[in-house]
Write the structure tokens for this entry.
Amino acid sequence: MALVRLIVLTTFALSPFARAEPQQDMLFFTSVEGADMYAASDPALEDTDIHAKVDFLYSYNSDRFRFLAEYILSDEESELERLQAAWKIDNKTRLWFGRFHAISKYWTSEFHHGQFMQTSISRPAMDAWEDESGPSPSHITGVWLDHEHSVGQQSAISFGLAAGLAPKFAGQQLRPLDILSPDSGHDLAISARLIYRPDVLSNNQIGMIFARDDISVVSDSAPNLADLSAIRLRNIGVFANWSWQDWRLSTNWTYFDIDMHYNSGDVPENFLMGYLQAEYQVTENWTIFGRTEQADKEDNSVYLQLLPEVIAHRGMLGVRWDFADSQALTLEAAATSIQGDNFEHEDFDELRLQWSAVFP
């Protein structure tokens, strides 16, 4: 709550520097999704469910100050996802502080929580949220410096550097700091991102990410964590998003270098995860898309055994219909392989149907 009070006080403190008529926006991202998992190697994995979610996003923007808050409400969770404020040092540089999305995750930075913003229903496994078996942090609480440097008249290079509190590992997932109910024991997370945009007026970009996360472990939260004291994650990755005519390609490949600190000794390991997604806009309202997700050396990962629901491989095809200015229906089918227990993958097929929208 101290961080919440600090952000609120800063908002009032900086208000004299704001322009006379600052811009404020409130968006509501809503979605209803049905999923059917079938033809599974383990019948226990077969399931059918329906989920509904509302994402409340508020932003305030003035000449020198910006504030953003995001709250998720669904049948599965209720959580303050982001609470962050930025001081605009100049037109190209911002200093953020609060709880924000990890800059080392490209998909998260591009689409955030708004399902309507992304073409597909599912997210790539490597960019999954912490409570969905995400293998690396999605939320950091701390400070983030973001700077853009113009190159010529049309191009730009963006650089971001963030440092703050990393999630803890408890049960079978990473648990980021909850600023509405903060606790101790969170270690340091440091990340950097470099992006090149050949044309600042387009979404085309290529970039690199670097991250180091020191993850403390709640050893009494699960039997298999009893001897584990800490996890150190180091990531380096490359990503790209490119559109031409009616096509769009996005890809991200990240190398994980991990040290598992057990009381009996350290266990080092490494593996690679990545995806390639292609989209083709058939007409103004219809888009077909597909994605392949692959991993290498993940089969023997001790770390991924702590996340048995993380997706190791997936082949997916889908179609999206934007039937209104701010509403869409999306159908997605996939063949999926999750990490599973005892270093053996478990397979199943899945079919998803989703309505998504943004208001107003």
Summary: The helical segments are 2-14, 106-111, 302-305. The chain has three helices and 18 strands.
